[in-house]
TrEMBL record:
Signal peptide (UniProt feature, chain positions): 1-24
GO molecular function (one): beta-glucosidase activity
Domain of life: Bacteria
EC number(s) from the headed UniProt entry: 3.2.1.21
Lineage summary: Bacteria, Pseudomonadati, Bacteroidota, Flavobacteriia, Flavobacteriales
InterPro entries: Cellulose_Degrad_GH3 (IPR051915), Fn3-like (IPR026891), GH (IPR017853), Glyco_hydro_3_AS (IPR019800), Glyco_hydro_3_C (IPR002772), Glyco_hydro_3_C_sf (IPR036881), Glyco_hydro_3_N (IPR001764), Glyco_hydro_3_N_sf (IPR036962)
Name of this protein: beta-glucosidase
Catalytic activity, as annotated: Hydrolysis of terminal, non-reducing beta-D-glucosyl residues with release of beta-D-glucose
Key words of the record: Glycosidase, Hydrolase, Signal
SUPFAM superfamilies: (Trans)glycosidases (SSF51445), Beta-D-glucan exohydrolase, C-terminal domain (SSF52279)
Length: 760
C-alpha cells in the first residue's frame, strides 16, 4: 500500500521510464504475433462483449451473434450457459473465424453457481475469510465445469446507505473487512494457476464508489472528496488489484462530474499508473451507451471517451463495434489505444490457456460430476449457518426444544424460490429448500409442525410483484388479509412456540431495488404484532438483503434470528441454528439504524466539534444530535449474539510506545462463560487521537474468529504494525503520524475496553 501516492508526486520523467521498461518486460510474443496479423475490424471485434440471448433462444449456427463471431467481431459472450451451448459457440470462433481466436464466456457468478451460498452481505457476516475463499473456489469449480471462464465478482463497493438495494451484493460498510474479503474472493475464483480448467478470471466491481450513490438510489450521482475516497471507499478495490484480479468493471455512477466509464483519471491515472493494474477493463451493461443520458455526447463520442479513458471491452452496447473505425479515421482516438485494449483481452485468453485448448471448459463429464453435488450442498448448508446473526434472545428462547408444537407462520416460510436471494442467476430456484421443508426434516418425530401463511408480502399487490421478479413469486394469496390473519392465529393458539418467517422477498434488494422505507412491510408487522398478542413466545426469522429498521421489533419480539437469504440449503441451515445443532456466530458488517432518517449511519464516523456527551442518548441542545431520535443505531457494526456468552479479560499491549520499524502485540483473554460450545469474532479497533486531518472515532484493524468449548479460555494475540496506523493525509500521502493511539478489543464496535500507546 505504500505505492498509493498520487502520480503527480512522482518525477514524471522517472515514471515514464519505469513504466515503459515495465511494459517492455511484459510483452507476450504470442500475443504480439497475433496482434500483428489482425485487421482493424478484427481488433475492434475483440473489444465487443454482446449478450448471448439470441444464441440461447435460437440456433447457434444461424444466429446473428454466430455470424459476428465467424466474422471476428466478438471477443466474448455474456450470460451464455451450459457446456453444450458454449462448446457449439466456441467451435464457431476457433473453426470459422479467420484467426481462430477463442471467446471469453462471462456470467454473474455472484454467490455460487448452481450450489448457492448466502448473499454476499450474509457471507461477510461470517467473518470467516478461509470459508469465504472456499465458497468462491467452489463457485469457480462449478461454473468452469459448465463452460464459464469469467465471473463478474466480487462486488466490493463500500455502502453506508441500506436504502441502496445492492448493499446485498457487497461486504458492508468497513474498508478493512471489505479488503480482506475482496482478496479472498479473488484467490478463490482464480486459484494459483489460471491455466487449470477449474479456475476462472475474476472481475472486481464496480469501479468506483458505486455504493455511495446519492439518496441510496441506484445508478445515481456520487460526489466525494479525495480523502474520503482514498481512506474509506477505494481500499477494497486496491486489495483486489493487489491480489491479482484479472479484470475490472467500470461503475455506472459519475465521479467529479465524469461518468466512471469515461473517467480517465479513474481508469488510467489511478487504476493503471498509480496501482499498476495490468488486466483489462470492461464496462457494465451498456455503460458506454448510458453516458449519452449523462449528457456526454452521442454514441460515437461516448465510445471514444470510454476508450480514451481506459476501457478495453464494451459490454452489450456495441458502441466500440459500430463507431471506433470512424473515430480512428477522424483522429478522435489512436490505433495504439485500440492495440493496447486488444493486447489485454488476448493476454487474458492466453493466461486462461484458451489458445492451447479452447475447449478446456467444455467437458460434459465434468458438469455432470461436479455441479450441485451433495458435497457442495452440504458445504453450502454449513456456510449458511455461519452467516446467521442472532440479534436478540430474551430468556434464552433459542435454541428451540424438539418437543411440543411449533407454529411456522409467515409469507416467507414456504417459498423455495426466494431462499437464494438476489443475483442468483444460475440457481435452480425450485430446488432450494424452504424453511417449512427444512424445519419438518430437522424437528424430529416428537415435534408437531403446523403452518399458516399469515399474510402476503405486502398490502400492495403491485409492490409485491416488483419485489418478486425473475421467477421468485410468493404466489399471492387471494384470500382477504383478515382471513389470512385469522388462520395464522388459529394455528398459533395451538402451538407452544411461534416461528415467524418475515421480512423482504429476494428481489426487494439487489440491482434497481432501492427502498425509501426499509422497515418490515406493514402487513407483516401487523401479523407479527397479532402473534405477539397471543402471549405465546415468538421467534422472528428475518429474511433480508439489507439492514432494516427494527426499532419496534427489537423491543417487542423475544428472539430475532437474521438469516439474510441463506442459499440453496436455506431451510436446513436455518433449522440447524434454530434447534441448536449449530450455535450462531455471525456478526453484523453493516449498521442497523433506528430510523431511515439516521442514514447514512456507520460505526467509523468522525466526531463533530460538538459531539453528544451523554452515553444515554438523551437530547442535548447545541450538540450534534436529533430532537426526535437517538444517535446510536439499534444494532451496531460487529454485533451478534450467541447461545453462549463470552467474557473479555486482561487486555494488554506489549509496549506503550512504538517506533517506526516496531510492532506491538495486543493480547486479550476470551472465556466461554455459558453453557454451549461456540465461536466468537474477536475484533480489534484503533483510534488515532490527533491527526493532520480528522480521524474516525474507531477503525477496524484486525479480527479473529475463534472456537471455544464451554468454560474454555483462549489468549488471543494481534500484532499491530506501522502499516495499520497509516492513512491518506491532505496531500494524499500514505503516512502514519506520530502521536497517541487507543486500541479497543471486544465483541463489537461498541467496545469500550482499551489500552493506549504512543507512536514516536
Amino acid at each position: 500500500m505504500n505505492n498509493w501516492k498520487t502520480i503527480h508526486y512522482l518525477p514524471l520523467l522517472l515514471f515514464c521510464f519505469v513504466f515503459t521498461i515495465t511494459q517492455a518486460q511484459e510483452t507476450n510474443p504470442f500475443v504480439e504475433g497475433l496482434l500483428n496479423k489482425m485487421t482493424l475490424d478484427e481488433k475492434i471485434g475483440q473489444l465487443n462483449l454482446p449478450g448471448g440471448g439470441d444464441v440461447i433462444t435460437g440456433q447457434a449456427k444461424s444466429s446473428d451473434i454466430a455470424n459476428k463471431i465467424a466474422a471476428g467481431k466478438v471477443g466474448g459472450l455474456l450470460s451464455l450457459t451450459t457446456v453444450e451451448k458454449i462448446r457449439e459457440v466456441q467451435k464457431i470462433a476457433v473453426e470459422k473465424s479467420r484467426l481462430k481466436i477463442p471467446l471469453l464466456f462471462g456470467l454473474d457468478v455472484i454467490h455460487g453457481y448452481k450450489t448457492t451460498f448466502p448473499i454476499p452481505l450474509g457471507l461477510s457476516t461470517s467473518w470467516d475469510i478461509p470459508l469465504i475463499e472456499k465458497t468462491a473456489r467452489m463457485a469457480a469449480q462449478e461454473a468452469s465445469a459448465d463452460g464459464i471462464n469469467w465471473t463478474f465478482s466480487p462486488m466490493v463497493d463500500i455502502s453506508r446507505d441500506p436504502r441502496w438495494g445492492r448493499v446485498s451484493e457487497g461486504s458492508g460498510e468497513d474498508p478493512y473487512l471489505g479488503s480482506e474479503i475482496a482478496k479472498a474472493m479473488v484467490r478463490g475464483y482464480q486459484g494459483d494457476d489460471l491455466t487449470k480448467n477449474n479456475t476462472i478470471i475474476s472481475c472486481v466491481k464496480h469501479f468506483a464508489l458505486y455504493g455511495a450513490s446519492e439518496a441510496g438510489r441506484d445508478y445515481n450521482t456520487v460526489d466525494m472528496g479525495r480523502i474520503r475516497m482514498y481512506n474509506e471507499y477505494l481500499p477494497p478495490y486496491k486489495a483486489a488489484i493487489n491480489a491479482g484480479v484479472g479484470s475490472v468493471m467500470a461503475s455506472f455512477n459519475e465521479i467529479d462530474g465524469i461518468p466512471a466509464t469515461g473517467n480517465k483519471w479513474l481508469l488510467t491515472d489511478l487504476l493503471r499508473k498509480q496501482w499498476g493494474f495490468e488486466g483489462f477493463v470492461v464496462t457494465d451493461y451498456t455503460g458506454i451507451n448510458e453516458m449519452i443520458a449523462h449528457g456526454m455526447g452521442d454514441l460515437q463520442t461516448t465510445s471514444a471517451l470510454a476508450l480514451n479513458a481506459g476501457v478495453d471491452m464494451d459490454m452489450v452496447g456495441e458502441g466500440f463495434l459500430t463507431t471506433l473505425s470512424k473515430s480512428l479515421a477522424e483522429g478522435k482516438i489512436k490505433i495504439e489505444q485500440i492495440d493496447n485494449a486488444v493486447r489485454r483481452i488476448l493476454k487474458a485468453k492466453y493466461d486462461l490457456g484458451l489458445f492451447d485448448d479452447p475447449y478446456k471448459y467444455c467437458e460434459v463429464k465434468r458438469a455432470k460430476k461436479e455441479v450441485y453435488t451433495k458435497e457442495n450442498r452440504d458445504f453450502a448448508r454449513e456456510v449458511a449457518t455461519q452467516s446467521m446473526v442472532l440479534l436478540k434472545n430474551e430468556n434464552q428462547l433459542l435454541p428451540l426444544k424438539r418437543t411440543g408444537t411449533i407454529a411456522l407462520v409467515g409469507p416467507l416460510a414456504n417459498t423455495s424460490e426466494n431462499m437464494a436471494g438476489t443475483w442468483s442467476v444460475s440457481t435452480e430456484q425450485s430446488k432450494s429448500i424452504a424453511l417449512l421443508e427444512g424445519i419438518r426434516e430437522a424437528a424430529g418425530k416428537k415435534v408437531k409442525i403446523t403452518y399458516a401463511k399469515g399474510s402476503n408480502l405486502t398490502y400492495d399487490p403491485e409492490l409485491e410483484e416488483n419485489a418478486t421478479m425473475f421467477g421468485k413469486s410468493l404466489n399471492r394469496d387471494n384470500r382477504s388479509d383478515a382471513e389470512l390473519l385469522n388462520e395464522a392465529l388459529e394455528v398459533a393458539e395451538k402451538a407452544d412456540v411461534i416461528v415467524a418467517a418475515l421480512g423482504e422477498a429476494a428481489e426487494f434488494s439487489g440491482e434497481s431495488s432501492s427502498r425509501t422505507n426499509i422497515e418490515i412491510p406493514q402487513v407483516q408487522k401487523d401479523l407479527l404484532n397479532a402473534l405477539l398478542k397471543t402471549g405465546k413466545p415468538v421467534v422472528l426469522v428475518l429474511f433480508t438483503g439489507r439492514p432494516l429498521v427494527l426499532k419496534e421489533e427489537s423491543k417487542t419480539v423475544p428472539a430475532i434470528l437474521n438469516v439474510w437469504f441463506p442459499g440453496s440449503e436455506a431451510g436446513l441451515a436455518i433449522s440447524d441454528v434454530l434447534f441448536g445443532d449449530v450455535n450462531p456466530s455471525g456478526k453484523l458488517t453493516a449498521t442497523f439504524p433506528q430510523s431511515v432518517g439516521q442514514i447514512p449511519i456507520y460505526y467509523n464516523h468522525k466526531n463533530t466539534g460538538r459531539p453528544l456527551q451523554n452515553k444515554e442518548g438523551k437530547f442535548e441542545k447545541f450538540t450534534s444530535n436529533y430532537i426526535d431520535e437517538r444517535n446510536e443505531p439499534v444494532y451496531p457494526f460487529g454485533y451478534g449474539l450467541s447461545y453462549t456468552t463470552f467474557k473479555y479479560e486482561n487486555l494488554n499491549i506489549s509496549s506503550d510506545t512504538m517506533l517506526e520499524n516496531d510492532s506491538l502485540a495486543v493480547t486479550v483473554n476470551v472465556t466461554n462463560t455459558g453453557n454451549y460450545d461456540g465461536k466468537e469474532v474477536v475484533q480489534l479497533y484503533i483510534r488515532d487521537l490527533v491527526g493532520s486531518v480528522t480521524r474516525p472515532v474507531k477503525e477496524l484493524k484486525g479480527f479473529q474468529k475463534i472456537a471455544l468449548k464451554k468454560g474454555e479460555t483462549k489468549k488471543v494475540t494481534f500484532i499491530l504494525t506501522l502499516e495499520d496506523l497509516k492513512f491518506y493525509n491532505y496531500n494524499l500521502d500514505f503516512v502514519a503520524e506520530p502521536g497517541e493511539f487507543e486500541v479497543f478489543v471486544g465483541g463489537d464496535s461498541n467496545v469500550e475496553q482499551k489500552v493506549t500507546f504512543t507512536l514516536k
